[in-house]
Amino acid sequence: MRVQLHRFSTLLPTGLLLLGLTAGTSSQSEARVSFDSGQQILLDAEIQNGVMLSPAGTSERELNQAIRNQLSYTIGQLAVIDAAPRVNRFEVTVVQIEEVPAANGEPAQRRIHYRAKGQLAWGRNWRIPAQIELILPSQGHEIALTAFGEHYLKPCSTDKYAENWSLFYYFHPLMAGCPLQIRNTATESDVVRFPVSFAVSRENSTGKSPEYGEIWKDGKLTVTAIFGKYSPESTSKDDDGLLGYNDFHEYLLQQFGQPTTRSETFLGAPGLAHPVLDLSFRSYRGPILVHMELIDSMTQTPPEFKKRFVQNARDADLVIYSGHSELGGSMEALSNLMEFSAGKYQIFLVNGCGSFSHLNDRLFEKRALINPEAAASKYLDVISNSLSNYFVWMPIEAVNLITDLSSRSRPGYRQILDRFDPRQRVVVEGEEDNHWPL
C-alpha cells in the first residue's frame, strides 16, 4: 500500500505533547503498555547526543515540530531492516540551545542539543546491535526539508513514486547511489550523524490471549469496521478502498453464510450505493453483529459519520480501521473520536501503513480516564502493523480476526497474529494484563 501523503504541515499529527525547550525539560507519556509479536521484538532506544540546526528566533512550538520532523526520518532508515520506531511516543529532553552567529554569508542559527528515549519494533530475524548510526537531515523545518528533498529524493528514496514531503517514509541514506552513505564535504552540512543505542525492552510479553470471557459475556460479538477509500471522494468502482469494503462483505458471507438480518437489501456487492451496513450472522459462539462503513478519509468525515461511529464503536467488542494512515492523521482522528464505556473490554485493529509508528498513546490515555482505578491497558488491546500494509490484505485479515474471536479453539495472540501477512510485522499492545483463561 502506498500512503497518501500530505505536506509537512501535517507531517505529524497535532495534539502532541509539547517539548519544553529550555535546558533540562522534557515531554513524557504516562501510558506504558506491553508488546507482543511473533515477528518483532520491542527494543528500548536512546539517543544521547541528538543535534539539530534551527533558524534564530524560532518559537518553541516550531522547534517542537522540527525535532519531531527530523526524528520521523528514522522511519525510512529503519524500515529497510524491518524495524519501526514509535516516533510519536519518543520522550525528548532539550539539554542545550547554542546560538550560532551569522558567518560566511550564512544567517544566524541555533544548534539544538537533545536527548531522546523511545521504543521500536525490531525484526526477530535480525541481530540486535548495541547501537547504529542515524543519518538525519540537519534541520527539521519545512523550508529546509523541502530543499533537502530536492537534493536527495531520487538518489536516497526506496520508492520511485515518493514525493518531496514523503521522503522521510522512504529515506534510505545507505542505499547504493545515495551520496549520504559516505562522509564528504559536499553533503555533510545537509545531515547530522549520531548514534542510537538499543536494549531489549522489559515491556515485551508473550503467551497472552484476548479476553474471550469479556468479549462474549453478553452472548454476542459486536464489530465496528471502517474502510477508507484509497482516493478520497473517488467514485471509481476500482478504488482499492471500495474493493476492500466489498471484499469484506463477501468474505463475511463466505465465512458465516447469509446474514440473519441486514439493514439494506441488494444483490452482489454493496458498493458505493450502500456505504453503511448493519449485518448479523450466526457463529459457533453466538450472534455476530457487524456495523460496516465506507468513508472517504478518517480525517475528512462528516458529522453524521462521527455520530454513528461514537455510538457504534463505544459498544463494540472489536473496532477495525482499514485504510491509509495519512501520516498518522487517521490514527489521531480515530483516537479523538473514540469514546469509551466504563469496564468495557475492547480490541482495536488499526490496519494502515506503518500504524505502529504513527499511533500515539491517546487511546490508552482516554481509556484510563474512564477507569482510573485500573491500568491504561486493562480494558484495551491494540493490534497494528509496524511496516507497510496493502489494501488487498485488509478485508481478509479483518474477517480472519472476527473468525478467531468467534471460534471454538479460542487462539492466543501469537496464533492470531500469525494469520496476518508477514510482511506487515503485526504486533499487539496492551495484552499483558489479560487473564484469559482464568
CATH topology of the largest domain: Rossmann fold
Question: Could you tell me the mean pLDDT?
Answer: 89
The largest pleated sheet is described as: 9 strands, mixed
Radius of gyration from CA coordinates: 22 Å
Terminal residue distance = 39 Å
The shape is globular
Would you kindly provide a written description of the structure presented here, covering whatever features stand out?
This protein is of the alpha+beta class and 438 residues long. The protein folds into 2 domains: 8-200, no CATH class; 212-429, 3-Layer(aba) Sandwich (Rossmann fold). Helix content is 25%, strand content 25%. The chain has helices spanning 60-79, 142-152, 167-170, 212-215, 240-256, 303-315, 329-337, 355-358, 362-370, 394-405, 413-417; strands at residues 25-26, 35-36, 40-55, 84-85, 91-100, 109-123, 131-137, 191-200, 221-228, 261-262, 276-281, 288-295, 318-322, 346-351, 380-385, 426-429. Strands 2-16-15-14-13-9-12-11-10 form a 9-stranded mixed β-sheet, with helices on both faces. Helix 5 (240-256) runs parallel beside helix 10. The two termini are 39 Å apart. The model is unreliable at 1-30 (pLDDT under 50).
